Amino acid sequence: MTDTAQIPEPRTAADARWALPDLAARALGGAVLAANDDAFAEKENLIRPYPVVHAAHTFGANGQVYDGWETRRRRSEGHDWAIVRLGVPGVLHGIAVDTAYFTGNYPPRISVDACRRDGHPALADLLDADWHQIVPVSDAKGDSRNEYDVDDPARYTHVRLNLHPDGGVARLRVHGTPVPDPAGFADLPLDLAALANGAAVTAASNAFYSNPVGAIMPGLPASQADGWETARRRTPGHEWLDVRLAGRGVVRVAELDTTHLKHNAPGWASIDAADGTDTFPLLERTALQPDTPHRFVLTGDRPATAVRLNIFPDGGIARLRLYGRLTPDALHDLETRFRA
């Protein structure tokens, strides 16, 4: 697995953080738990997965309808805020605050705080939590994607977006690296390729139609766009997807799901595994059917740290699942990282 073709990334290596998953995504279980005010537009819009839409001169009972979160004009000291539970806790690397279509009513400044409250804290617990500022009070522009770096190695479970003093934000994206609680992993089978368990897509030969991270997202695919799909290949060869596993482990079952891919599923697929620099076949080349969940029981017992999913010659995979067990050392490493 040494091919250098990569997932499409932002222009510079320094911007690679924006290719990291959005840990606040609703599809991962993120939620907007509270806001001090959402008089004009609902706080829940902050983490909607869809592109921002806008139709001018569409007025409801509270004024112009906005696809975002908007507070009333503040007439007192202070600022407005919204608390978001991350779907997958982790280390945060970048915050994107999108003010699309907010032109005369965007916040001139924002800040972001984060806290760690494991388990299932009530809102009262979060309000009293020890919040740490991860983005200081910073300027924001209207009708723009405002990006802010985060340099903090701590693991966080919640973020709080602050508007100074008030205004509207269309979307909030919290880019980071998942750090799951390994307590639930102990000697249990788990999906070693799941983003929620700490796996990551590291490279792909082609990602023309969709972000390959969709292949390791939780839940059932919602549509043809919910997964990884390549362009039509017009040259010899095949397409592939590289995944770093949640930890070193033995894979016992592989699932390749082509649900919703009726006319663009691959004809065949195989999986190669890597354990450090050693590589070996995990699943031999096998035929796939369109719009079908495929389940393959594997017989090998070699641990792996990464896999390459090969599809022939091209097409789409809605979900990749690799069920197995972590090695004791890998579980110990995850526990150490969780406690850091």
UniProtKB/TrEMBL annotation:
<dbReference type="InterPro" id="IPR008979">
    <property type="entry name" value="Galactose-bd-like_sf"/>
</dbReference>
<dbReference type="InterPro" id="IPR015908">
    <property type="entry name" value="Allantoicase_dom"/>
</dbReference>
<comment type="similarity">
    <text>Belongs to the allantoicase family.</text>
</comment>
<comment type="pathway">
    <text>Nitrogen metabolism; (S)-allantoin degradation; (S)-ureidoglycolate from allantoate (aminidohydrolase route): step 1/1.</text>
</comment>
<dbReference type="GO" id="GO:0000256">
    <property type="term" value="P:allantoin catabolic process"/>
</dbReference>
<feature type="domain" description="Allantoicase">
    <location>
        <begin position="29"/>
        <end position="178"/>
    </location>
</feature>
<dbReference type="Pfam" id="PF03561">
    <property type="entry name" value="Allantoicase"/>
</dbReference>
<keyword id="KW-0659">Purine metabolism</keyword>
<keyword id="KW-0378">Hydrolase</keyword>
<dbReference type="InterPro" id="IPR005164">
    <property type="entry name" value="Allantoicase"/>
</dbReference>
<dbReference type="GO" id="GO:0006144">
    <property type="term" value="P:purine nucleobase metabolic process"/>
</dbReference>
<dbReference type="GO" id="GO:0004037">
    <property type="term" value="F:allantoicase activity"/>
</dbReference>
<feature type="domain" description="Allantoicase">
    <location>
        <begin position="198"/>
        <end position="326"/>
    </location>
</feature>
<protein>
    <recommendedName>
        <fullName>Probable allantoicase</fullName>
        <ecNumber>3.5.3.4</ecNumber>
    </recommendedName>
</protein>
